[in-house]
Write a sequence for this structure.
């Protein structure tokens, strides 16, 4: 569904990710693991058109989107739960969700999607009129996921959705991602939380210093003892 | 002092205040979406007034009735300045997006001078003040010392209506949602499918159209315009936006009205009219030192 071919990207003089190839399979959860600074966010941003790609290419549903503007990539059905959540702090919950459905002009369809999001996150319905910036971290995490769902995407990219959340919320977050996937959503999940990620993902890639150092089905990754020692601690 | 007298000052101040607020709202919008200060704003206002005047002179030849001329002047003046604002944004402001904000300030300052000098040089006899036609009805009522002119009432209502409409556009429409999203977080807005450039261009068009309205109102009220009128109105509008809290529309309105109120107060206190601006600016400076982020910045929830 999403294929990355030999992608290189970076900032200023330095390449942060180099020659990365990766494939996200329709209907599955593909995870991207790696330590702080490995280049995960940089890779995600390149897919979404927020960072310039230096070489290589990204194709989505068979179309080369490497040179597309971010809003055009969004309109093709890729949505992102960005690192650090980034809710629109000075908008209400309702307006955040409306912004998520920006590309849908039919208000009936938007209303329909709102109901679906509320079914998943009843809390958001309670907090409908609250300013997003005044919500707790956990609530904001729900809101960003809800906001992304509002665009009715075909691929959801999560960049460390559990960062900074309490263990309980982390668990809840993974449960939600699994649930969304079970309804048919394709997911690319960037995480550092290795154990819980491998518990829900189907395929995985490990990024280290900007290069893919391991990949395969989750079971194969779990069995890879070298990786276990190097990246996963004693998970 | 007599009540009618005070009411008279109040009405005059309100006409001024609304004019300033229209300019200040533009500064606030531009700063909201792009974090830039566009210093050619006052000169766009002036050009709006001159565009309207040129249209009037042309329409007068065709013996167009006053009301029709006025409507055409307003529509074309506002649309033309909206277009100019969008072009200016596209070719001067957006290309400098990654460079220091000071560069944007400087380049728009220079562009403002280009507009100003062009009007002075190319408008027939442009260096002299130009009479602006009195197109609004001249009726007025007297209550004691208050002479309430119908044109003041029309100018106040039109300006207030324009601000309310702008507010509704920002708060209730799709493009308004895009403007607010971009103002708060450009990248996330783009991830939602919002076209950043289009949104910024629309914002600049909106702000510049308001400046044109402000310029035409000034012409109608004083029945005179000149090529340098945008300098003072630009500085006042900018001060009003900053003292109210740059980025907040309410702040811009409050700032604009406050400035006019201070001028009025200055005019009453010092019988020499020239002191009113000195007084108003002095108070604004003190207010800015007291509340560096603006009067409304901490209370108003919105950035745009
Ligand atoms: N805007 C930037 N300008 C310059 N260098 C950057 C920029 N953003 C990230 N980097 C560098 O790129 C490298 C990879 O950063 P990146 O954010 O992609 O890592 P990450 O894998 O997402 O890490 P984390 O798990 O901490 O989020 C780091 O060395 C970082 O310092
Ligand atoms: Mg990251």
């Amino acid at each position: 569904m999403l294929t990355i071919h030999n992608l290189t990207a970076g900032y200023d003089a330095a390449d942060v990710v180099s020659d990365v190839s990766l494939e996200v399979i329709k209907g599955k959860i593909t995870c991207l693991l790696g330590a702080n600074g490995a280049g995960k966010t940089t890779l995600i941003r390149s897919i979404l058109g927020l960072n310039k790609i230096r070489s290589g290419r990204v194709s989505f549903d068979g179309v080369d989107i490497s040179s597309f503007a971010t809003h055009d990539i969004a309109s093709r059905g890729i949505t992102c739960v960005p690192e650090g959540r980034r809710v629109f702090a000075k908008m209400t919950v309702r307006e955040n969700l409306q912004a998520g459905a920006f590309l849908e002009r039919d208000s009936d369809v938007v209303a329909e999607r709102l109901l679906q999001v509320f079914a998943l996150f009843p809390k958001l319905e309670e907090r409908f009129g609250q300013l997003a910036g005044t919500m707790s971290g956990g609530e904001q995490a729900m809101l960003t996921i809800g906001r992304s769902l509002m665009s009715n995407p075909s691929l959801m990219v999560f960049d460390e959705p559990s960062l900074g959340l309490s263990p309980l919320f982390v668990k809840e977050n993974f449960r939600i991602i699994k649930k969304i996937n079970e309804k048919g959503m394709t997911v690319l999940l960037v995480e550092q939380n290795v154990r819980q990620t491998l518990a829900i993902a189907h395929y995985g890639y490990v990024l280290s210093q900007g290069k893919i150092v391991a990949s395969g089905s989750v079971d194969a990754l779990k069995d890879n003892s070298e990786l276990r020692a190097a990246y996963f601690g004693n998970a | 002092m007599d009540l009618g007298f005070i009411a008279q000052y109040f009405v005059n101040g309100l006409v001024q205040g609304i004019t300033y607020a229209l300019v200040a709202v533009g500064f606030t919008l531009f700063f909201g979406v792009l974090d830039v200060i566009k210093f050619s704003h006052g000169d766009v206002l002036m050009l709006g007034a001159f565009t309207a005047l040129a249209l009037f002179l042309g329409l007068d030849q065709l013996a167009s009735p006053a009301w029709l001329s006025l409507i055409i002047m307003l529509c074309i003046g506002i649309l033309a300045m909206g277009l100019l604002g969008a072009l200016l944004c596209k070719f001067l402001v957006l290309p400098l997006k990654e460079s220091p904000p000071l560069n944007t300030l400087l380049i728009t300052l220079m562009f403002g001078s280009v507009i100003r000098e062009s009007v002075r040089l190319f408008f027939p006899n442009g260096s002299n003040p130009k009479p602006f036609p009195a197109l609004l009805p001249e009726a007025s009522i007297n209550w004691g010392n208050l002479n309430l002119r119908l044109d003041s009432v029309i100018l106040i209502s039109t300006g207030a209506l324009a601000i309310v409409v702008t507010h509704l556009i920002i708060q209730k429409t799709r493009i308004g949602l895009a403007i607010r999203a971009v103002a708060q977080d450009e990248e996330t807005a783009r991830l939602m499918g919002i076209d950043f450039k289009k949104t910024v261009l629309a914002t600049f068009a909106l702000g510049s159209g308001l400046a044109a309205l402000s310029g035409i109102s000034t012409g109608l009220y004083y029945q005179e315009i000149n090529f340098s009128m945008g300098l003072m109105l630009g500085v006042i509008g900018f001060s009003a936006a900053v003292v109210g809290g740059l980025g907040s529309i309410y702040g811009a309105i409050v700032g604009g009205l406050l400035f006019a109120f201070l001028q009025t107060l200055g005019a009453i206190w010092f019988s020499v009219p020239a002191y009113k601006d000195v007084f108003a600016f002095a108070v604004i400076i003190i207010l800015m030192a007291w509340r560096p982020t603006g009067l409304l910045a901490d209370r108003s929830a919105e950035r745009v």
User: Anything to note?
Assistant: The mean pLDDT of chain B is 91. Residues A 11, 16, 34, 36-42, 83, 160, 192 surround adenosine-5'-triphosphate (ligand 1) (CB under 6 Å). Residues 3-34 of chain B form the longest helix (32 residues). The CA atoms of residues 245 and 294 of chain B lie 4 Å apart.
